[in-house]
Amino acid sequence: MARRPLPRILTAKQPLARGRGFARSAADGATDVLHPLITVSRGLRRLAAAGRRRWNATPKDRRGPVLFFLAACLLLVGLAPYGPLVALIALMGAAAWAGRERTSTTGPTPAQTARLQALYEALVPYLSAAEDPKPLFTHGGDWRQSFREYAFDESGRVTELRLRYPPYFTDGEQASRNRIEQVLHAKCGRGREYRFRWDEETGQLRMTVLPELPTGVCTQRFVASPGEIVLGFTDAEGVQRTLPVDENGATRDASPVVWRTGSRSHEPHLLVVGRPGSGVTTLLRSIALQGLPHGDVVVVDGGGAGEYACLIGRTGVPAVESGLAGALAILEWAAQETERRMVAVSRARQEGRPAPEEIRRQLWILVDRPVPLGHLAAVEGRTDPQELLDIPLRHGRAANVAVVVGEQFDAVGSLGRTVRAHTRARVTLGHAAAEQVAAVLGDPPHTTPTPRFPPGRGYARLGTGEVHRLQVPATPDPYDDDAPEAQRRSVLDLLPARAGVTLEKAEPAGARADG
Ligand SMILES: Nc1ncnc2c1ncn2[C@@H]1O[C@H](COP(=O)(O)OP(=O)(O)OP(=O)(O)O)[C@@H](O)[C@H]1O
User: Fold this and answer.
1) pLDDT tens by residue, 146-165
2) DSSP of 21-48, one letter per residue?
3) How remote is the C-alpha of 346 from its chain's centroid?
4) Is 11 assigned a ligand-binding role in the annotation?
5) Structural contact between residues 258 and 265, judged by C-beta atoms closer than 8 angstroms
6) Alpha carbon distances (Å) from 435 to 7, 101, 209
7) Rounded to whole angstroms, how far apart are CA atoms 35 and 213?
8) Counting beta carbons within 10 angstroms of the beta carbon of residue 186, is it exposed (0 to 12), middle (13 to 18) or buried (19 or more)?
9) Counting atoms of ligand 1 from 1, which one is nearest the CA of 282?
10) Residue 230 among known ligand-binding residues
11) 303 C-beta closer than 6 A to ligand 1
């Protein structure tokens, strides 16, 4: 184990050790005395978080009546005799109930005790130091010294563990963390997905076994504002918002990863990287369907497999191009359109007017697999399509233009610098090593690899935020006969009607829908 040298104070003999012991028992005593207070405040925090989640999930048009109802309740409580007192007692009771620690109160069974002891022993070589006079981890020691919370599933495997580790453990170093995580992963049982949360401040590690992300959500009209894109769904504790989603005919609340685009977005452009067949095209198709009600979408299909054919000729889709010539033409047009929008926005600002109506309609530029097209362009001595993305990527935010680039892991190195610098919303899909994911997201996932990677499963990170597990809603090509009929129908239902194509502002030679 990589260890920091022990502070000299730890190597001093008995008096210091006695002092530490006294401090530790004083701290334990204080924790006992303050326990009810801690429980109630934890409960209040949980209740507040639940309230915030419900509020966010309430559609905007229902918030007024809800507020009115709450105000009426408050008034009633205020006017009733002893109302405020009873309400306060009820609130404290609810907080105490919500804040209780959810561990077994009867203590572990002998089999569970043996498991915890084995786990403890496995950690000893990594979390002990010979110079430590009062080690938390020692061979033959008691696991209760370190394991603060634990839970088991029906088969007797650990599903949750909170442990304390010694202050000299180098928890700031990824390699040290990896070693502990590997031991816990191996000893608690492979074949499950684990999340590790390191609390460096208090020297505690919380390990949780995660359930598989549900795969049953199909594309649908999500409750989201214009410019908001639901990339997929994640764990409830990772995001504050929930959305009602229809899953196999029943409605449930799901926790979405929402990507906000537009002029106030910190991450106006998105890069999606995946393994072949992991669902990159599906995610881009889902974004197109969500963007179309409030914007126009142009698609460059570098893979050329015709998986965007359903968009051809639809209202709001000026072009779907898969050939090099068509792709260059539509990207040139998109660059000019971005400039035109920038000029219009700047003029409106100078004249103290709001941005013109047609600029408030967002322009989406979806480029699936630009690298193969770039190779083709190099062979033919033509412009790399990625170069034409420079203006939309640099100035798209002000001009209400969003760029989405999809590429495969093995071609990420060939993505241009502007693409990499300006796509700060990131998604990876499919099975990949933690280093590969970290290279795209800028941070590794804090979960172990899942044993099963269904299509559309991956990770998302918006800017410098947390890495979320992600499951993209199923959005198959509606012309794919192998896709389930109900899912194909959902996609067809979301597609706008077919229309004549007009590019009013700057019609490029090749910018037409070829269908
Ligand atoms: N989120 C999802 N839910 C269900 N099925 C999915 C999902 N994403 C992809 N699929 C299915 O997986 C298959 C591959 O998807 P897709 O074509 O989107 O992958 P890709 O990464 O673009 O791969 P390629 O570049 O090889 O085409 C398709 O049959 C698709 O319907």
Assistant:
1) 999 999 998 889 999 999 99
2) HHHHHHHHHHHHHHHHHHHHHHHHHHHH
3) 34
4) no
5) no
6) 33, 35, 22
7) 35
8) exposed
9) 18
10) no
11) yes
Residues 6+ apart with CB under 8 A from 471: 213, 214, 215, 217, 232, 233, 234, 454, 456, 457
Going from the Cα of 304 to the center of ligand 1, the distance in angstroms, rounded, reads: 15
Residue 58 · residue 66 · CB < 8 Å: yes
The pTM (predicted TM-score) of the whole model is 0.76
> Does 275 belong to an annotated binding site?
yes
The pLDDT value given to residue 150: 95
* Ligand 1 touching residue 278 (CB < 6 A): yes
CA 372 from centroid of its chain's CA atoms: 29
ipTM for the whole predicted complex goes beyond 0.95 = yes
Whole-number pLDDT of residue 36: 81
CATH 3.40.50.300 fits 228-493, yes or no: yes
Whether 396 is in the pocket of ligand 1, judged by its Cβ within 6 Å, is no
Which atom belonging to ligand 1 lies closest to the Cα atom of 284? 18
Digit-coded pLDDT (tens) for 425-471: 999 999 999 899 999 999 989 898 887 889 999 999 999 999 999 99
List, for the chain, all residue ranges whose pLDDT scores fall below the cut of 50: 1-17, 20-21, 104, 501-515
Q: Is 277 annotated as a binding residue?
A: yes
Q: Cα separations (Å) of 429 from 238, 304, 330?
A: 18, 20, 27
